[in-house]
Automatic annotation (TrEMBL):
Belongs to the PTH family. It is an enzyme of class 3 (hydrolase). The record marks 98 as: Stabilizes the basic form of H active site to accept a proton. This is Peptidyl-tRNA hydrolase. Keywords: Cytoplasm, Hydrolase, RNA-binding, tRNA-binding. TRNA binds at residues 21, 71, 73, 119. The gene is pth. It comes from Actinophytocola xinjiangensis. Its EC number is 3.1.1.29.
Length: 194
């Protein structure tokens, strides 16, 4: 993935727009791309494809960071529109999202696979017509007791989780940078040890 001749990499953080959702577990993808934007020293700008976009470089690779302005369940349209604009094929698309099946703060990188009930991923897969895009999965853990997962993901991180959330977001941003710069296998070797 790190060859500069292949064109840019599109890194999309998933979340819901608006102040009401800012601290939700479902919005951790936004937090990670915000951290990457800070590292690039830039600010997001509204793009006609329906996302806020920032262009720059990570690990020497041309990158477009994007945050869809649609709600999570409708992420596919803005993601595909942004990918088309930047001429990014699915294998150079990286989607950063919350993952119920990983413990809080766990990070896993993968290519393709199912959506595990994640409506943002489902929308992207449907719009792209393929599951073969890269995912950076940020663990948010399982809901307590019998809480509906749909309610859990729309709740803010707990006070205990918030204590080291910045560290966990930073770690996930590191993994995303490694994926962009070193490729999937090398990044997995670095970050799947936890």
């Amino acid at each position: 993935m790190s060859s500069p001749d292949d064109g840019p990499v599109l890194v999309v953080g998933l979340g819901n727009p608006g102040m009401r959702y800012v601290g939700n577990r479902h919005n951790v993808g936004f937090l990670v791309v915000d951290e990457l934007a800070a590292r690039m020293g830039g600010r997001f700008k509204s793009h006609k494809a329906g996302a806020d976009v920032l262009e720059g470089r990570l690990e020497g690779v041309r990158v477009a960071l994007a945050k869809p302005r649609s709600f999570m369940n409708l992420s596919g349209g803005p993601v595909v529109g942004t990918a088309r604009f930047f001429k990014v094929p699915p294998e150079r698309l990286v989607v950063v999202h919350d993952e119920l099946d990983l413990p809080y703060g766990g990070v896993r990188l993968k290519l393709g696979g199912g959506e595990n009930g994640h409506n943002g991923l489902r929308s992207i897969t449907k719009s792209l017509g393929t599951r073969d895009y890269l995912r950076v999965r940020f663990g948010i853990g399982r809901p307590p007791g019998r809480m509906d997962p749909a309610d859990f993901v729309l709740r803010d991180f707990s006070p205990t989780e918030r204590k080291d959330l910045a560290f966990q977001v930073d770690h996930c941003a590191d993994a995303t940078e490694a994926l962009v710069g070193k490729g999937l296998e090398a990044a997995q070797n670095l970050f799947h040890t936890r």
